[in-house]
Design a protein that fits this description.
Layout (H helix, E strand, L loop, with lengths): L47 H12 L2 H20 L7 H10 L4 H6 L9 H30 L14 E7 L3 H11 L4 E6 L13 E8 L1 H27 L1 E8 L3 E3 L7 E4 L12 E11 L9 E11 L7 E6 L4 E3 L2 E17 L5 E6 L3 E2 L7 E7 L7 E9 L2 E3 L5 E3 L8 E9 L17 E6 L8 E3 L6 E17 L3 H20 L3 E9 L5 E9 L3 H18 L10 E4 L6
Antiparallel strand pairs: 1-23, 1-24, 2-3, 3-22, 4-6, 4-21, 5-7, 7-8, 8-9, 10-11, 11-12, 11-21, 13-14, 14-15, 15-18, 16-17, 18-19, 20-21, 22-23
Length: 572
C-alpha cells in the first residue's frame, strides 16, 4: 500500500495537524503558540445533575456490582463464624459468658445480628440498585439483538478465523438455497449482491447468506443476573412478610403459635401478631443418641421427637416425627429442631411445708461434649417474707477429674447429679431480667447443697424450707420460620443455575456463505465462520458446513476447496 501525503504547495502538513507551511527550502515553521497556553483552558464544572449522572454511572457499572457482591460475601462471614440471635439466643448468651471482654464490642458492630444490621442492609440495597441498573439495560439490548437480523456478510471473508473457497457449476441461487439447508439451526438472512453476469437488480449475479446461532449464551447470562435480582427481591420480601422465633419446649409440654410463647421473636416489618398461623403441637417423646466410642465419642448421633400437632384449634390432631433438618411444615410455617438440653425438675416447700414451686426448669449447657448445664430456680411467692433463689449446676453423667472436682464425662444422662447454691431475699423481679440469671445484689446466701440425685431432698440450713431434685426432662431447642418468599427464592435460584449453565456451555458463532459468478462463468463459493469462544471446536463445525455444502452441490460439476485458512485465535 502506498501512502499519499497531501499539503499546501511549497510545504508539508505538520504531524500535529496544524498545517503550518514551511519555507521554500523545506524547513518547517513551528506553529504559533496558543494564547495563554493550556493554563487558560476553562474546565467545565459539573452541575448537581451532572454529579448525579456520574454517581449513577459508577453505581450501575458491573465493576461496582462485583465489588458490592464481594463486600456482601465478606460481611456474611461473621454471621457464619459468630452465633446469631436470630438462630439461637442461647449460643449468644454462652458466647457472652465465655468472652465477657470482647462480646460487648462485637455487639456494638451488630456482629451477633449481622443479617439485620444497618451496614449489611446498606450493602444489600446498593447491590440491588447496582444490579438493576446493570441488568435491565443489558436485557433490553439483548432483546433488540435477538430481534435484529444477523450481521451482514463482510466484504473480505478470507480475513475470518476460518474461511474456505471452492467453485461449482451450480447457479448462485441454488448455492444459497443449499446453504440455508446446511445452516439449519442458525438464524439466517439472505442478501443479494451484484457481480459479473448480474442484471439491473444484481440478483442473478450472486448473493450471500448470513447466519448466527448461540443467542442462548447471552440469554443465560441475562437470566442469571435477573434471577439474582429475583433472589434479592425474595429475600427482601421475606424480611417484610415473614417471621422467625426461637423457643425451648420441655418434653411432655406443648406450644401454641403466639408471640408470648416465644423466647425470642423476630417479626417482619409488616407482620402483626394476628398474622401468625394458629397451629399448636405437643412434644410427646424425645430421644437422643450419642456416639459411645472412638474419637467422636460424645457427639450427638440423632435427635428424634414425636409430636402431636393441630393446624388450627378446631382441626384434627396429626402425628409427626421431627428430626434435625427434617422440619414440620404446617400452614406455610416450618418448625425446626435445633438442639437439645436438660430441664431438671424441682419441688420447693416453704418453712410451713407448703409446696410453692413444682416444675421443670430448662438449663443451658456449657459445652456440647459433657452437657454440664447451668440454671437458676426462682421462687418469688414463698408465703414468707423473703423470696428464694437457687443457682444450680446439672451434671448428666457424674464423674471426677484428676483434681477430684465434680464433672460430667458424657452428654447422656447416665448418672445425673445437681448441686445448688441457695439465696433468700429480693429477687428483683419488679424490673425485667433474664430467666437464666440470678441477681443476688439484694439477697443473702444461705448455703451450698450436697450432691443431689433424683429423689434427694435438701433442707435449707436456716429453716426456710426444702428443695427436692425430682429428676429431669429433655427439652427441645426449636425454631419456627415462616417465609412466604421461600418458594419464589427457590425458583429464582433454579433459574440462576440454568442461566449459568447456558452461559458456560452454549457457544455463540456466526457463519457466512457467499456465491457469485466468476470471470469464467462458474460460481465461486466462499464459506467463513467466526466464534467468540472455543476456536478449535468452531473450526470443526465450520469445516463441516463447508464440506456439507460442497457435497450437496456434488450433482453439478464442482471443484474441491482451493484455499482454506484455519486460525486458532478468535475475533470479536
Amino acid at each position: 500500500m502506498t501512502s499519499v501525503t497531501t499539503g499546501e504547495p511549497g510545504g508539508t502538513k505538520d504531524s500535529d495537524g496544524t498545517g503550518a507551511v514551511g519555507a521554500a527550502d523545506g524547513e518547517a515553521t513551528p506553529p504559533a503558540p496558543t494564547p495563554g497556553g493550556r493554563d487558560d483552558v476553562a474546565v467545565p464544572r459539573l452541575s448537581a445533575l451532572g454529579w448525579a449522572r456520574w454517581a449513577w454511572r459508577i453505581l450501575t457499572s458491573m465493576r461496582t456490582a462485583l465489588i458490592l457482591l464481594f463486600l456482601l460475601a465478606i460481611g456474611a462471614i461473621p454471621g457464619s463464624v459468630l452465633p446469631q440471635r436470630e438462630v439461637s439466643v442461647d449460643q449468644v448468651t454462652n458466647y457472652y459468658l465465655d468472652n465477657p471482654d470482647i462480646s460487648p464490642w462485637l455487639d456494638r458492630f451488630y456482629l451477633f445480628d449481622v443479617y439485620s444490621s444497618p451496614w449489611y442492609a446498606a450493602i444489600y440495597l446498593l447491590l440491588f440498585v447496582s444490579l438493576t441498573g446493570c441488568v435491565l439495560p443489558r436485557a433490553m439490548a439483548h432483546y433488540r439483538a435477538m430481534r435484529a437480523r444477523p450481521p451482514k456478510t463482510p466484504r473480505n471473508l478470507e480475513r475470518m478465523p476460518y474461511s474456505a473457497r471452492f467453485t461449482t457449476d451450480a447457479a448462485p441461487d441454488e448455492v444459497l438455497k443449499q446453504a440455508r439447508t446446511v445452516l439449519k439451526g442458525y438464524r439466517t438472512e439472505t442478501d443479494a449482491e451484484s457481480g459479473p453476469g448480474a442484471d439491473a437488480t444484481g440478483t442473478p449475479g450472486g448473493g450471500s447468506v448470513a447466519a448466527e446461532r448461540g443467542y442462548l449464551r447471552e440469554s443465560g447470562n441475562v437470566v442469571f443476573h435477573l434471577a439474582l435480582l429475583a433472589i434479592l427481591l425474595a429475600v427482601a420480601a421475606g424480611s417484610f412478610f415473614g417471621y422467625r422465633g426461637n423457643m425451648l419446649v420441655v418434653e411432655g409440654t406443648g406450644f401454641a403459635n403466639g408471640v408470648p410463647s416465644y423466647d425470642a421473636f423476630y417479626p417482619g416489618h409488616l407482620v402483626d401478631a394476628e398474622d401468625l398461623q394458629p397451629f399448636s403441637f405437643t412434644v410427646d417423646e424425645f430421644r437422643a443418641s450419642f456416639i459411645e466410642d472412638g474419637n467422636l465419642s460424645g457427639q450427638a448421633e440423632s435427635y428424634v421427637a414425636d409430636l402431636t400437632y393441630k393446624e388450627a384449634p378446631d382441626a384434627p390432631e396429626e402425628k409427626h416425627r421431627l428430626e434435625v433438618n427434617k422440619p414440620l411444615s404446617v400452614d406455610g410455617a416450618q418448625v425446626y429442631l435445633l438442639g437439645h438440653g436438660y430441664a431438671p425438675e424441682f419441688q420447693v416447700t416453704n418453712s410451713d411445708g407448703d409446696v410453692v414451686f413444682d416444675q421443670a426448669v430448662p438449663f443451658l449447657f456449657r459445652d456440647t461434649f459433657s452437657f454440664t448445664s447451668d440454671g437458676v430456680v426462682k421462687v418469688p411467692d414463698t408465703g414468707d417474707e423473703d423470696q428464694l433463689g437457687f443457682s444450680a449446676v446439672f451434671y448428666p453423667s457424674e464423674a471426677q477429674n484428676s483434681e477430684g472436682e465434680l464433672i460430667s464425662d458424657f452428654p447422656d444422662a447416665r448418672n445425673p447429679v445437681v448441686t445448688l447454691q441457695a439465696f433468700k431475699g429480693d429477687l428483683g423481679m419488679r424490673s425485667p431480667q433474664s430467666v437464666y440469671q440470678l441477681y443476688t445484689e439484694d439477697m443473702e446466701e444461705i448455703g451450698d447443697s450436697p450432691e443431689l440425685r433424683p429423689g434427694d431432698t435438701w433442707e435449707l440450713p436456716d429453716g426456710s424450707g426444702t428443695i427436692t431434685f425430682k429428676g429431669y426432662r429433655d427439652y427441645l431447642s426449636m425454631q419456627v420460620n415462616s417465609d412466604p418468599a421461600r418458594i419464589p427464592a427457590l425458583l429464582a435460584s433454579t433459574l440462576a443455575v440454568l442461566g449459568l449453565l447456558a452461559t458456560l456451555f452454549v457457544r455463540p458463532r456466526r457463519a457466512w456463505v457467499r456465491a457469485k459468478r466468476g470471470d469464467d462463468g462458474r460460481t465461486v463459493v466462499e464459506v467463513a465462520g467466526l466464534s467468540k469462544t472455543d476456536a478449535a471446536w468452531a473450526t470443526a463445525e465450520f469445516h463441516r458446513i463447508a464440506t456439507g455444502l460442497r457435497d450437496r452441490l456434488r450433482d453439478a460439476p464442482a471443484s474441491t476447496p482451493t484455499t482454506a485458512k484455519h486460525d486458532a485465535g478468535t475475533k470479536e
